């Protein structure tokens, strides 16, 4: 047992963490942090709704070594519940399990009734149908002693005669079923033929059949989205999403690579986690339409390079450092059984090609869907996430890069941040005169100054701020003069508004006062500045390479890109200056690209040719990246003008540091000369200094 007086506990996937005295029940720790774990029996170990599991290993980013031994042994209550109701070996009842050491606690998806919303919906888009998988009804000649061909051979011959598939073969595992199916169907069968290269019979049913589905899956680092398509009509008939359970191994991609570096035998666990989530989504979408897993004959996957590798069971540690080598970059086609994917045993998997070491198949799918390579306009396509993927160009030339924005845009690294879930602040407006805020939260359409908000707020609460909310909050703080263009919260405004409060040697803005306060701190502002500067610097590098000073059109892809207001993204300096009317959210473009490749095999050839001609720019190796990054720390930018934005928004004039800030900095310098403080205060001091 750990002998420390308290233990550090991190809950996933919420990312909330805190220190608790040894002996604290896990359920109590969750409640103190605002992590929702359901319990309807009052902690008596009867309902079993509060189940959690321990993620074991070294989590370097969080400085936690987590072990199941850091909980007390199973209590009599848990043993009784396991005996009567069943309790998986890796599950604990959080009301009964007591903390004895540092832990990473995984709250299962089924227990997260207030869990994050998955906003990767299928975008409505007509796709011409020409699938790689075909259903063919075939009438086969009965056996004849004068023509001693095997049943399988006669099936292949009939398939060529009736459907024109010359040189077809039959998947080896299927051969044992051919005779039985032919006889049960009265020598009439339906076969599924995969036509990607050589025609191959991959499934067979007695008689006539007209049901065939395919799935398109976007494996994001935070969320996974699955779309079920009727392969005979091309329609998307069901969609579902879930949080990526790998988040317990690390919130961002490099944290997961670091986890593998610290735990070399951890690859199977990461792969099993993502495949298990996909299996659950397959059950969900097929169940929604009354279909069976065996009805799914094809699956197309997109994902960033690290998720691509982890899904395939490939170690991604080489992507953790230069030269960021991919194990495989080209498109892949293989039987679903090779990775144990629970669809029809003969079903086929297609993965889109990756563009570069940190620009993946998801970026390839998004580029295919939005088609900058098909037009004359210079189009900027950005998928904003923990690792931003950037594509810029037109039909003449197209470039791509990635930029390490980190998880701040997902609500992580923000003091009151959370993922998009009911109760999360998603919209913010600040009165420039009174500095009073208005907010909107997920789950309520009304603003906080409207009657409906007051009537319904008790149903969802105000629990934190999500990515779109923090973008708007900081942009509005800048527009109202609360923060300077350098990103410093103006402490002198505390005389004007009680919303400006001191937090040590810096200041914060109180965004919400209710059962608890939600503040935007100086460190929150800095985290967003760092994230947006990384993205903007990546964009500027591509503009330099293309030799342009402006872009014609901007498309924001991904779930996050769909919910941020383009105006606030530009005020912040997240994206370059552009006519706001030509900045649009395109939704889950990566998923759309996957569906295009699922429904029409011609798009597979197009995306493979497209990726071959995309010029890959490695931001880490570009000498001007740091220069662009430093300039982009300012709001909206230190050197780049935003004339088109200025036509739509009144941007504050640059101003000197206020007297209040200057006095605060003088006090700070005196403290520095007098000696250092704790590491946390030192971090605040560095933040303030960097804004000078």
TrEMBL record:
Residues 656-692 are annotated as: Disordered. Residues 682-692 have a biased composition (Basic and acidic residues). InterPro entries: 2Fe-2S_ferredoxin-like_sf, 2Fe-2S_ferredoxin-type, Beta-grasp_dom_sf, Corrinoid_activation_enz, Raco-like_middle, Raco-like_middle_sf, RACo_C, RACo_linker. Gene3D superfamilies: 3.10.20.30, 3.10.20.880, Domain of unknown function (DUF4445). GO terms for molecular function: iron-sulfur cluster binding. Residues 6-111 form the 2Fe-2S ferredoxin-type domain. Pfam families: Fer2, RACo_C_ter, RACo_linker, Raco_middle. SUPFAM superfamilies: 2Fe-2S ferredoxin-like (SSF54292). This is Uncharacterized 2Fe-2S/4Fe-4S cluster protein (DUF4445 family). It comes from Tepidamorphus gemmatus.
């Amino acid at each position: 047992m750990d002998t420390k007086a308290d233990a550090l506990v991190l809950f996933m996937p919420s990312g909330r963490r805190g220190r608790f005295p040894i002996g604290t029940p896990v359920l109590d720790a969750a409640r103190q942090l605002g992590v929702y774990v359901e319990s309807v029996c009052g902690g008596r170990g009867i309902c079993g709704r509060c189940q959690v599991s321990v993620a074991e290993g070294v989590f370097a980013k969080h400085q936690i070594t987590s072990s199941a031994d850091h909980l007390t042994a199973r209590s009599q209550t848990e043993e009784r519940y396991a005996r009567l109701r069943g309790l998986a070996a890796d599950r604990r009842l959080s009301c009964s399990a007591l903390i004895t050491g540092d832990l990473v606690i995984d709250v299962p998806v089924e227990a997260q009734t207030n869990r994050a919303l998955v906003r990767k919906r299928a975008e409505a888009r007509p796709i011409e149908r020409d699938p790689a998988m075909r259903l063919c009804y075939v009438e086969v000649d009965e056996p004849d002693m004068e023509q001693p061909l095997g049943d399988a051979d006669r099936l292949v011959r009939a398939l060529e005669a009736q459907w024109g598939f010359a040189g077809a073969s039959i998947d080896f595992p299927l051969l044992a079923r051919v005779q039985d199916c032919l006889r049960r169907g009265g020598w009439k069968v339906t076969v599924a033929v995969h036509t990607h290269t050589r025609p191959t019979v991959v499934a067979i049913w007695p008689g006539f059949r007209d049901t065939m589905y395919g799935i398109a899956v976007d494996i994001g680092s935070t969320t996974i989205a699955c779309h079920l398509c009727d392969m005979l009509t091309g329609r998307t008939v069901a969609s579902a999403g879930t949080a990526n359970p790998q988040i317990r191994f690390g919130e961002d991609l490099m944290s997961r690579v670091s986890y593998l570096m610290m735990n070399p035998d951890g690859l199977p666990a990461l792969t099993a986690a993502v495949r298990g989530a996909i299996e659950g989504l397959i059950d969900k979408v097929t169940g929604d339409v009354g279909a069976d897993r065996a009805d799914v004959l094809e699956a197309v996957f997109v994902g960033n390079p690290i998720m691509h590798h982890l899904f395939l069971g490939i170690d991604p540690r080489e992507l953790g450092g230069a030269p960021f080598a991919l194990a495989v970059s080209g498109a892949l086609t293989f039987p679903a059984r090779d990775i144990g994917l629970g669809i029809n045993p003969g079903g086929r998997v297609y993965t889109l090609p990756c563009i570069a070491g940190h620009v993946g198949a998801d970026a390839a799918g998004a580029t295919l869907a939005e088609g900058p390579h098909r037009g004359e306009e210079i189009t900027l396509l950005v998928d904003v996430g923990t690792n931003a993927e950037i594509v810029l160009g037109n039909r003449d030339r197209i470039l791509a890069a990635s930029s390490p924005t980190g998880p701040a845009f997902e609500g992580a690294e923000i003091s009151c941040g959370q993922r998009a879930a009911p109760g999360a602040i998603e919209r913010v407006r600040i009165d420039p005169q009174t500095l009073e805020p208005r907010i909107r939260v997920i789950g309520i359409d009304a603003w906080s100054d409207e009657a409906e908000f007051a009537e319904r707020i008790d149903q969802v609460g105000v629990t934190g701020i999500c990515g779109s909310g923090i973008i708007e909050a900081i942009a509005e703080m800048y527009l109202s003069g609360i923060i300077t263009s350098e990103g410093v919260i103006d402490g002198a405004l505390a005389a004007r508004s009680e919303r400006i409060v001191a937090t040590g040697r810096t200041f914060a803005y109180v965004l919400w006062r209710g059962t608890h306060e939600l503040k935007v701190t100086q460190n929150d502002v800095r985290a967003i500045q760092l994230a947006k500067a990384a993205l903007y610097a990546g964009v500027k590098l591509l503009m330099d390479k293309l030799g342009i000073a402006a872009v014609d059109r901007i498309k924001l892809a991904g779930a996050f890109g769909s919910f941020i207001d383009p105006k606030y993204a530009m005020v912040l300096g997240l994206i370059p200056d552009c006519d706001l009317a030509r900045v649009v959210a395109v939704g889950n473009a990566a998923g759309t690209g996957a569906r295009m490749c699922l429904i029409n095999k011609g798009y597979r050839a197009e995306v493979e040719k497209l990726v071959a001609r995309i010029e890959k720019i490695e931001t880490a190796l570009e000498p001007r990246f740091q220069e662009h990054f430093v300039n982009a720390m300012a709001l909206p930018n230190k050197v780049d003008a935003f004339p088109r934005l200025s036509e739509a928004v009144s941007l504050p004039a640059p101003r000197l540091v206020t007297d209040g800030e200057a006095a605060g900095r003088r006090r700070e310098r005196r403290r520095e000369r007098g000696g250092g403080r704790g590491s946390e205060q030192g971090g605040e001091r560095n933040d303030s200094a960097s804004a000078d």
